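re: the backbone from monday

yeah here it is again, tokenized this time
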């Protein structure tokens, strides 16, 4: 399989991209028994440096996902940090990348297997999403976000993404950019791979952690940055679908997509149908912080070179 990256990481070694393989009989192939993280590395041209954004928090969630899935012990945080830094160096990237860190059940086991643990990392160049500029159209999905007592919503296990995939395919085939999923109580949960915020009467509001959302690192970052730079407090609470129509602004956020304005929901314009002022300010602040152009929060940026 051709790729823009020369190397991947698999089970303790940097290997050629095409050699990063797993057997079809492994539980990860048979049952999708794996967990992962999506992490961004931001290239700063001026500093000739790449910064991994909030690596510590991603490693915390990587460990939590494995604990919740009863995986055997995998590589330590130190080993994983060395592996991801080593992989970016080996590929000699001079661009912003998206990194995927995966832990999975390898070997010949069946559904209850807890090991052996395979660990893989890939990194590929990926610029910021262009949609940020024009804004996205959202569809309230007829698929429901799976409740935490059906599949653990707080972790990134591969199987959760079949729920996300079904909603995404429906939205795309119906001509929308993104799906918004409601939870089993009919409250707003999240978008596939993104958390949702609204601006209502000038205040930021986002579904609380007990609404079957992934406890997103970008969501936490937005809450922090909005408080510090814009003096805006965020209410974390249940959000009704009609609040999306009342809202002045809606946006969603995640590591991969960053912060994206949502300018219509079910074809109803949000506010005046254009990206809102708070969203645009947050995009600028976020970009400055992740790239290191704004030196605040140095512990959020792990240098690669
Ligand atoms: N929800 C889901 C289901 C996700 O997969 C992601 C992406 N990791 C997010 C929300 C956003 O989380 P984060 O900001 O930590 O990337």
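seq for it, each position gets an aa:
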């Amino acid at each position: 399989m051709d790729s823009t990256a020369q190397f991947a990481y698999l089970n303790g070694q940097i290997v050629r991209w095409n050699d990063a393989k797993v057997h079809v009989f492994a539980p990860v192939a048979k049952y999708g028994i794996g967990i992962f993280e999506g992490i961004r590395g931001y290239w700063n041209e001026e500093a000739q440096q790449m910064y991994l954004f909030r690596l510590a928090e991603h490693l915390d969630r990587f460990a939590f996902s494995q604990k919740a899935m009863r995986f055997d012990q995998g590589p330590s945080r130190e080993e994983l940090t060395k592996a991801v830094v080593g992989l970016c160096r080996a590929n000699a990237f001079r661009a912003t990348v998206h990194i995927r860190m995966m832990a999975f059940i390898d070997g010949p086991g069946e559904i209850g297997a807890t090991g052996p643990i395979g660990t893989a990392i890939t990194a590929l160049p990926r610029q910021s999403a262009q949609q940020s500029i024009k804004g996205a159209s959202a569809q309230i999905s007829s698929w429901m976000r799976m409740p935490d007592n059906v599949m653990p919503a707080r972790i990134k296990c591969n199987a959760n993404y079949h729920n996300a995939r079904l909603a995404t395919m429906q939205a795309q085939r119906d001509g929308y950019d993104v799906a918004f999923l409601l939870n089993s109580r009919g409250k707003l949960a999240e978008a596939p791979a993104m958390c949702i915020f609204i601006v209502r009467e000038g205040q930021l509001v986002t579904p609380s952690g007990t609404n079957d959302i992934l406890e997103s690192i970008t969501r936490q970052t937005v809450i922090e940055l909005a408080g510090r730079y814009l003096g805006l407090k965020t209410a974390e609470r249940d959000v009704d679908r009609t609040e999306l129509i009342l809202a002045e602004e809606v946006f969603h956020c995640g590591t991969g997509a960053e912060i994206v304005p949502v300018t219509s929901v079910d074809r109803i314009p949000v506010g005046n149908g254009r990206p809102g002022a708070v969203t645009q300010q947050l995009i600028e602040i976020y970009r400055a912080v992740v790239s290191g152009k704004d030196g605040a929060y140095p512990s959020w940026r792990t240098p690669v070179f």
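The chain has two domains: 7-125, 131-291. The mean pLDDT is 96.
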